[in-house]
Design a protein that fits this description.
The chain has about 425 residues and is mainly beta. The protein contains one helix and 33 strands. It is globular and about 60 Å long. Residues about 1-30 have low confidence and may be disordered.
Length: about 425
């Protein structure tokens, strides 16, 4: 068993999609100011909101509300006047819905028994809103659809039991990907590494891959070499998957100690970037096609102790020509830098040494980061160097990045959920 100080992989933030590449509309019926799923409105950790703070207020950001939550590492999804996350309390994993204006509990629905793990208890994955429903995935592998209005369970089943699997060593951390009429998760089961279910019934539509651990990464949808496809970073490889059939279009080995591939894949200028901690590193892949076949080539690679970027559980954020990311030194060691690198080449631009373990999102030319100390840190997103606008401690230990919706930041730890006003005064 790995010692307790080592990380519990959790894909809680953010990837990219700005460059010249295209993506598909994944979650439907969401406002531009919602944070309706893991990684936000475009599943890339980036919000298009503007009018946010550019000077640190005396005393920090104004607290709108603070309420009791529960154990777990699920992020907060927001749609309209509902904020939703997964918590563990009273021997159950529950979906908790809060009123965004007041923090009052709208409903709380149990979806599975409590999940216990030596590296941290409770659910890990972030909910996904689609219209009047919300999709959740628990630490033990239960996938469920609930009504946003009242929390009624529309359907629920344990993906792992159905497909002959068992929870990953550190729990199931894949946040559901809703695309078209499918909801997709990593299962790592004998009958399928990646599983797609019908959003109306929850019944399996296809499986992809066999005999490979799930890892802890959440899949994304990209248009690669002219073809829309699901790109999934699994326990030992990254692959492109046909949306309709689940057929594996291409595959590239990417083995990390303890199957700790946790960050989501990133689309950069039509290429696919993958990164992992455990002293692994980053690799940019060019996916070419000829007829029905695909070819995978390396554009650049930075692997091992001298790597420019080793995303432990955080997904890097791409803004223009640059990637902003956490670089963890060693095998899940305590030293983590905040870095800016040139996306097309992997060349280092700047590094804030020993920034600390954390997670972040981007909006309005700024990075909004949380740290394991419970701090909120606001940083100017610029390749010119590290420029911190301010920081304050607002919660206890957390691995989640904040969520941003309608000028408000939502943060949580293992006990509370907090809403802060991030608007410019």
């Amino acid at each position: 068993m790995r010692p307790a100080f080592r990380h519990l992989p959790l894909a809680i933030l953010a990837c990219p999609l700005l460059f010249v590449a295209t993506s598909i509309n994944i979650v439907q019926s969401a406002s531009a100011d919602d944070w309706s799923q893991f990684l936000g409105p475009d599943r890339n950790g980036i919000s298009q909101e503007t009018g946010l703070i550019d000077e640190w207020p005396a005393g920090g950001l104004k607290e709108v509300w603070r309420v009791k939550g529960g154990v777990g590492m699920s992020g907060v999804a927001v749609q309209g006047d509902t904020a939703c996350t997964l918590i563990q309390t009273g021997g159950q994993q529950r979906v908790l819905a809060l009123n965004t204006k007041t923090g009052a509990t709208t409903w709380s629905t149990p979806v599975a028994a409590a999940y216990e793990n030596g590296q941290g208890d409770g659910p890990r994955a972030t909910p996904a809103f689609v219209g009047g429903s919300v999709f959740v995935f628990t630490g033990d592998g239960t996938l469920a659809r609930l009504k946003v209005a009242d929390g009624t369970i529309e359907w629920s089943h344990n993906v792992l039991k159905r497909h002959g699997g068992k929870p990953a060593d550190y729990g199931m951390a894949c946040s559901p990907l809703v695309v078209g009429d499918l909801v997709v998760v990593q299962a790592g089961a004998s009958a399928g590494t990646v599983v797609a279910c019908d959003i109306k019934t929850g019944e399996p539509r296809w499986t992809s891959g066999r005999g490979e651990a799930a890892g802890y990464s959440s899949p994304a949808v990209f248009t690669v070499s002219g073809q829309p496809q699901i790109v999934a970073l699994k326990g030992a490889s990254v692959s492109g998957i046909d949306l309709k059939s689940g057929t594996e279009l291409w595959k590239y080995p990417y083995r990390t100690d303890y199957d700790c591939n946790t960050a989501s894949p990133i689309l950069v200028g039509g290429n696919v970037l993958v990164s992992a901690g455990e002293n692994h590193g980053s690799t940019m892949l060019k996916i070419g096609s000829k007829g029905d076949s695909f070819k995978v080539d390396k554009v650049w690679s930075s692997i091992g102790g001298g790597s420019v970027m080793r995303n432990e559980w955080q997904t890097a954020i791409q803004l223009g020509d640059y990637l902003y990311a956490f670089d963890n030194v060693g095998s899940a060691g305590p030293v983590t830098h905040l870095v800016c690198i040139e996306a097309a080449t992997g060349k280092s631009v700047w590094m804030k040494t020993r920034f600390g373990k954390g997670n972040m999102i981007a909006a309005d030319g700024k990075l909004f980061a949380t740290t394991m100390k419970g701090e909120l840190v606001v940083i100017k997103a610029t390749p010119d160097g590290y420029e911190e606008l301010g920081r304050s401690t607002v919660i206890e230990t957390t691995r989640q990045a904040p969520s941003l919706a309608n000028g408000r930041l939502y943060l949580r730890d293992g006990a509370e959920i907090v809403c802060l006003d991030a608007r410019k005064k």
